[in-house]
Amino acid sequence: MAGEGAGASLAPSTGTGDSVAERVARAAAARPAPGPRRWLMERAAWAAGTLRIAWSDHLAKVGIVMLVLFLLAAGIGPEIRTTPPFESVTLEDGRIAKNLPPSRAYPAGTNRLGQDLLVQLLHGARMAIFVGLLAAGGGAIIGTLVGLTAGYYGRLVDQTLMRVTDVALAIPFLPFALVFLALFGPGLRNIVIILALLFWRSPARVVRSQVLTLKERPYIQAARAGGAGNVRIMFVHLLPNLLPLIFLYVALGIGGAVSAEASVSFLGFGDPLTATWGQILNSAFTAGAMRTAWWWVVFPGLALTLFVTSIYLVSRGYEEAVNPRLRRM
Length: 329
Known about the structure:
mainly alpha, MetI-like fold, elongated, disordered N terminus
């Protein structure tokens, strides 16, 4: 909005023959650029205001509380319950604690190998957040770069990048993931790479449409008339106005990435040495736990469901905060 404010404060034409673009450029150049401290303060104030609006929505409030609990469980849970996730625990008489139902000693029970499922769930929460942030963040970065470049340069660049995006949109997730993992091997790192390679497609198209609108704004024209280069306009003038939209796609992408990772791990393509919710469900299914140990299936499934639900509720509240038209009167 700085450019629009600069344009509104211009004095009427003095008859010297100066064009509007030249006067806008002089006005924009006369205004000092905000320093890093001021920019950070503005972003912090915007984040606080967004959180306050999201907190006013009851469902978003529930999602925030649930997400905070998951973050605490992932952050300090493995430090409190320090048993390794794949270590078999023993009873007082020395026997392996196999298939024990939930109790005070083992709130989530144990599996057929005597492993503490609560420990695995806590480590799974940490891995879910890790996978979600990396995959959604990587996809958002790729999508932002593609959409920003296509929307700003237009013409042949836009057509080429959008056709590549269309082809990428036609690639189904699961077959692509299975072929990729068959070629490069199963594992959590490869799953994250797959998710990042596929999650950029929708953000790219949305960012491109926003850039097509923003690049015609007066403040962008003023920056261009003032001698700003294409890279500076893209990353200094356009990108900050895209951040709210990008954050929304990151929030939505985290839930999608966690669900996708759980699906692939459940099919047996995860890392067997890493405790994830999908890997726990895979082990439970292989052991036929639905007939012998219901807790082995219910708790990881419940954790996955609640985590994805919390992400959805938070992103829903965030979307209402950044888009006033969605707010209920």
